[in-house]
Hints:
Low-confidence stretches: none
Largest sheet: 3 strands, antiparallel
Strand content: over 45%
Radius of gyration: 15 Å
Helix content: under 10%
Number of strands: 3
Number of helices: 0
Shape: flat
Number of domains: 1
Structural class: mainly beta
Order of helices and strands: EEE
Mean pLDDT: 92
Amino acid sequence: LWIEQGLEMGRPSRIRLELNVDGGKLASARVGGHAVKVAEGRLFV
């Protein structure tokens, strides 16, 4: 499954979602794609 977003704001992305189902139950999920760093920061809680 390919998920596309960000087109209207000029920052398109294409994310790949791969699901593995075994016996009618979700056994694993993989998410991938290409990325470009646009920001960096730290969060202290």
